[in-house]
Q: What sequence folds into this?
């Protein structure tokens, strides 16, 4: 009997006992009206389906989720936070839930949130316990909501409970498990601020995070993720941050950080167990991350960690928003845990120069604590670097601009058209979406300065509009609009914001996203492709978003037709990130872009002022309306005046 079991194990199961935890109940946390959101239930479904169809889950021990007990959660979070998350999904919170969520930073809540949060935390505990006991060699917990941003008293960044921090404390507190030193590796593209704070003074936990930082402008947009943040008191030296200065980092950059920081330190620290905050939003194709780690890259990073803690490794999912990217990355990691085949693949040759610089400053900062970091990195290595990256990104805008100018100052201006289509991710990532969307026409309806055709053409052709200091990147597809027509819609035009970099003092045009019968707005409709529309969206909402995937694809189009409007999370800082559907014209959808309803509230309350436009800006609109044959000059002037003076 026993012989039979052993035989069947060696054929269908791996020699390694690898745990995998998936539970559909964690899908019950979603946006209240199922509005699109990058952190959605399909993320974990996609990973699970992929692992099943690749035959991975069949070779693993499949576990289901367990809710965490409050006493474990309370080792990381305050009582009031735990009470809130426990009760937030109950009926008595129905009327307050959305308001509470809106006061938090990047959080939504629904009737399924409490259960999912407890299951996510409990699941990481469950797999970590089994690995610690030796029942499993290693494990992957496919959990959501993610956890690493959640702080002692605060849910943020799509995270409710800090799953990895909770499991870490669990392991350390269960003395009989014999786990006294834990290495947490956080390779999510965002800084693990919550985890860092939890173990700030704790030398039993070495927290290592590599993340986009951009000098404090990348989410969570503060200095917590800086390399100078090394821990405090007995924890000094036990917190290591590797902050990227830019996006586009890929396998070579991550591997260099592993080879020259993490691996030597891990050797010296000699952990009893490793927990990985395994977000896959640094993966190539991720809409939020803008980095380009391949599945092979993730496999290598994980492979190198398997040599420590006798292979006792737990991966817990954090972020990652491209379903294909996260599924393939997770699959590559599972193959490493199962250890059944050699990791194969190749990596682009060299890290960026900025990567070597960051590695050097991190080593410098920490060498007093880790003698293995004391030597200089050989100049021979450092001289091997990728050519200075040129950004295709953006470039300038017109009615709008990003809030943080710093973000922009990093940009090297270069027209899109000079990029080859098939360059690797470091420059233009996967651009196959472009050919898909280049055959689909939409009407781009504009109510602002783009009504003046010469002005709008700069968004297509690129270049500098007369009298404006700024350069537009243009669209990669430079064909002019196929048709132009004008229509009147029952929407409210208004002018807001005190000043903009493009137009100086004075408000710029916005459309109330909701229609009302007493209002009218003149709109100029340009028939362009969905690809061009994406480039227009990008120019209207300057951000570090890198266009490796579209901002607005066919799914978004279906969704906006059904829902009326959709907010583009990736360019949330832009003022025109809300795409509104205005109906069909000759079987072609009409789309415009404006602020969202929460901005409208801020305009109404005066938090952001309503403001008449500058003369230059108003003149551009008048020219648009007059040259477009819509109104006489006099009528155009009074149309704008009315929109600029009527209260919202
Ligand atoms: N301008 C994780 O990956 N983005 N969280 C907000 C505001 C929030 C990411 C953008 C990103 C949170 C787990
Ligand atoms: Zn993330």
A:
């Amino acid at each position: 009997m026993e012989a039979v079991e052993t035989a069947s194990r060696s054929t269908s199961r791996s020699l390694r006992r690898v745990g995998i935890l998936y539970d559909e109940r964690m899908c019950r946390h979603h946006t209240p009206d199922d509005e699109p959101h990058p952190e959605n239930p399909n993320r974990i479904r996609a990973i699970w389906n992929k692992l099943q169809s690749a035959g991975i889950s069949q070779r693993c021990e499949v576990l289901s989720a367990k809710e965490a007990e409050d006493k474990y959660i309370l080792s990381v979070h305050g009582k009031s936070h735990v009470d809130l998350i426990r009760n937030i999904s109950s009926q008595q919170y129905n009327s307050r839930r959305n308001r509470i969520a809106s006061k938090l930073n990047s959080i939504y809540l629904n009737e399924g949130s409490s259960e999912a949060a407890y299951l996510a935390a409990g699941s990481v505990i469950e797999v970590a316990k089994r690995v610690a006991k030796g029942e499993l060699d290693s494990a992957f917990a496919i959990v959501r909501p993610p956890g690493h941003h959640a702080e002692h008293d605060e849910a943020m960044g799509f995270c409710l409970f800090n799953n990895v921090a909770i499991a870490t404390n669990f392991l350390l507190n269960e003395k009989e498990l014999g786990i006294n030193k834990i290495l947490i590796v956080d390779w999510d593209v965002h800084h693990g601020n919550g985890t860092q704070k939890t173990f700030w003074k704790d030398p039993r936990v070495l927290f290592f995070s590599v993340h986009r930082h951009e000098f404090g402008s990348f989410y969570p947009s503060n200095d917590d993720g800086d390399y100078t943040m090394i821990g405090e008191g007995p924890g000094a030296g036990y917190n290591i941050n590797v902050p990227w200065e830019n996006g586009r980092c890929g396998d070579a950059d991550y591997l260099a950080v592993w080879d020259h920081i993490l691996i030597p330190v891990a050797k010296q620290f000699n952990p009893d167990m490793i927990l990985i905050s395994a977000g896959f939003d640094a993966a190539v194709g991720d809409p939020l991350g803008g980095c380009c780690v391949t599945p092979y890259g993730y496999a290598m990073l994980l492979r190198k960690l398997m040599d420590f803690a006798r292979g006792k490794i737990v991966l817990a999912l954090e972020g990652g928003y491209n379903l294909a990217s996260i599924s393939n990355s997770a699959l590559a990691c599972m193959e490493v845990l199962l250890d059944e085949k050699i990791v194969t693949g190749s990596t682009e040759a060299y890290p960026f120069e900025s990567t070597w610089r960051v590695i050097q400053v991190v080593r410098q900062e920490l060498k007093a604590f880790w003698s293995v970091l004391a030597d200089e990195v050989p100049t021979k290595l450092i001289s091997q670097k990728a050519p200075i990256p040129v950004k295709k990104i953006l470039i300038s805008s017109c009615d709008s601009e990003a809030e943080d100018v710093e973000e922009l100052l990093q940009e090297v201006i270069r027209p899109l058209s000079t990029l080859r289509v098939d360059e690797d991710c470091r420059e233009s990532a996967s651009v196959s979406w472009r050919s898909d969307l280049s055959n689909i026409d939409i009407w781009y309806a504009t109510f602002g300065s783009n009504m003046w055709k010469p002005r709008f053409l700069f968004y297509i052709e690129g270049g500098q509009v007369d009298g404006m200091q700024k350069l537009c990147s243009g669209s990669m597809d430079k064909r002019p609009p196929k048709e132009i027509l004008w229509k009147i819609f029952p929407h409210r035009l208004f002018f807001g914001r005190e000043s903009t970099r493009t137009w100086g003092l004075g408000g710029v045009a916005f459309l109330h996203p909701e229609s009302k019968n007493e209002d009218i707005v003149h709109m100029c409709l340009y028939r362009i492709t969905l690809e061009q529309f994406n480039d227009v969206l990008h120019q209207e909402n300057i951000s570090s978003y890198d266009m490796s995937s579209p901002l607005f694809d066919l799914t978004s189009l279906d969704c906006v037709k059904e829902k009326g409007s959709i907010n583009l999370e990736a360019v949330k800082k832009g003022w025109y990130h809300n795409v509104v559907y205005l109906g069909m014209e000759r079987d072609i959808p009409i789309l415009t872009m404006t602020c969202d309803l929460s901005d409208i509230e801020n305009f109404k309350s005066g938090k952001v002022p309503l403001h008449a436009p500058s003369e230059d800006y108003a003149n551009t609109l008048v020219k648009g309306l007059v040259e477009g044959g819509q109104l006489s000059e006099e009528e155009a002037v009074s149309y704008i005046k009315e929109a600029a003076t009527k209260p919202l």
